[in-house]
């Protein structure tokens, strides 16, 4: 085994990984927001979140083309803020991705349980998770081909849903009733679930090192990816919310099949949507496993995590990083707390976004001559992204104080680990150097 990744990805495969990582957010998860706010309130949250992700991804394209590295955000922050900043960025990415994956796996279990009630949701979630851990161990080329297929099927499913549901939209479902339900606090509380429409889209940066020509392929994949997601997320929300009551949507783990069942009754169409919905969930599960395994691989290679995590097999897959990180994710599947897991994942994401945009500003100042094949409209676009990300941090914190303590505790443990592990590494290097010097003398 070595620690070099293979350059095999093409732009369309990168696009599939980016869209695939996120597309499960269209099929489930976002609907829990309708327990906290009205559809109108959620529209406001979605528009703010869409503004953020659009500006963020253009800014992120500059970072990822200038520094095409499997570590993505941890590498950007390390160059801008030093080793500790790189570690915090990498840890934030792992929190985002490792908590997103159990939420998606649990949703897969819910969809399978919808189709086959005799199969427990948690059991189905664990089996699906394990299956795609195995697929990822076959290497990025095989993993990317699988991701492309399931992503295309998932997009087809959303287009089918939008086509079947759009003629039955009733605007009163969106603009009637308690329009100001939850007030401003409700909109703030809904932001993590609006983020779920786009969460993990930045994960494509971790695949930049495996692209044939990252300086051209990455911006193409990023821009096409975010454009695809904006259209799909807005259309999916309007059709679902326009055809179903909020109280029904907020109480289900499978909102799209539930919406079609409300229109056409239980039967072929709702069951078909459940089956196709599995492809969307699988695309995200599979894609995010690619993302967090590359982050762990890169953090290991940079000395943040144990060295064995940066070993790859004959297929070029970081198999130890894939398996060990996935085992951690599987532990959280056993909790069954999908909504809480989504909020924790959102905390990691927001922290990552803030650090990444700060890194962009610092790198523009510290390394003005860095080769930047793609340049964002600076400083306006990254400035908007940073400002909105700070609003996200306040919103997510205020509306989820009970969960914040768990997140703060996790970061405190991570900081302690960093300083203890760093000292251990320094001691090992010193002992090794002493041994070499004594042999020479």
TrEMBL record:
InterPro entries: AA/rel_permease1 (IPR002293), APC_superfamily (IPR050367), EtNH_permease (IPR004757). GO terms for cellular component: plasma membrane. It comes from the Bacteria. This is Ethanolamine transporter. The chain crosses the membrane at residues 12-34, 40-63, 84-108, 114-136, 148-170, 182-201, 222-243, 263-292, 317-334, 340-364, 376-398, 404-421. Keywords: Cell membrane, Membrane, Transmembrane, Transmembrane helix. GO terms for molecular function: transmembrane transporter activity. It is a multi-pass membrane protein. It is found in: Cell membrane.
């Amino acid at each position: 085994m070595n620690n070099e990744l293979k350059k095999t990805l093409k732009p369309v495969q990168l696009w599939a990984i980016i869209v695939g990582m996120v597309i499960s957010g269209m099929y489930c998860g976002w609907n829990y927001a309708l327990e906290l706010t009205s559809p109108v309130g959620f529209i406001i949250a979605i528009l703010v979140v869409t503004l953020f992700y659009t500006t963020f991804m253009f800014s992120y394209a500059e970072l990822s083309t200038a520094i095409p590295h499997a570590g993505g955000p941890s590498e950007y922050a390390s160059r801008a803020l030093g080793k500790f900043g790189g570690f915090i960025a990498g840890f934030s990415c792992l929190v985002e991705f490792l908590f997103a994956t159990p939420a998606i796996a649990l949703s897969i279990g819910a969809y399978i349980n919808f189709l086959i009630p005799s199969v427990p949701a948690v059991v189905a979630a664990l089996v699906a998770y394990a299956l795609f851990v195995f697929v990822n161990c076959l290497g990025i080329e095989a993993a990317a081909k699988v991701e492309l297929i399931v992503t295309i099927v998932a997009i087809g499913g959303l287009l089918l849903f939008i086509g079947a549901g759009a003629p039955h939209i009733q605007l009163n479902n969106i603009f009637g009733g308690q329009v100001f339900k939850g007030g401003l606090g409700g909109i703030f509380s809904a932001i993590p679930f609006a983020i779920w429409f786009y969460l993990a889209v930045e994960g494509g940066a971790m695949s930049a090192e495996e692209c044939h020509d990252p300086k051209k392929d990455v911006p193409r994949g990023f821009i096409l990816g975010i454009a695809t997601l904006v259209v799909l997320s807005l259309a999916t929300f309007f059709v679902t919310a326009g055809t179903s009551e909020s109280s029904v949507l907020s109480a289900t783990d499978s909102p799209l099949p539930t919406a079609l069942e409300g229109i056409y009754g239980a039967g072929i169409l709702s069951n078909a949507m459940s089956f196709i919905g599995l492809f969307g969930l699988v695309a995200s599960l599979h894609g995010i496993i690619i993302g967090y395994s590359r982050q762990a691989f890169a953090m290991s290679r940079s000395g943040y995590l144990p060295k064995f995590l940066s070993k790859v097999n004959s297929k070029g897959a970081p198999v130890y990083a894939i398996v060990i990180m996935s085992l951690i994710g599987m532990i959280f599947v056993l909790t069954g707390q999908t909504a809480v897991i989504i909020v924790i994942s959102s905390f990691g994401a927001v922290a990552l976004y803030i650090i990444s945009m700060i890194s962009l500003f610092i790198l523009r100042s510290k390394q003005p001559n860095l080769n930047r094949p793609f340049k964002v409209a600076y400083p306006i676009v990254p400035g908007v992204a940073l400002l909105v990300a700070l609003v996200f941090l306040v919103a997510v914190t205020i509306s989820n104080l009970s969960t914040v303590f768990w997140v703060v505790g996790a970061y405190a443990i991570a900081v302690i680990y960093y300083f203890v592990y760093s000292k251990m590494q320094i001691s090992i290097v010193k002992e090794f150097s002493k041994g070499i010097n004594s042999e020479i003398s």
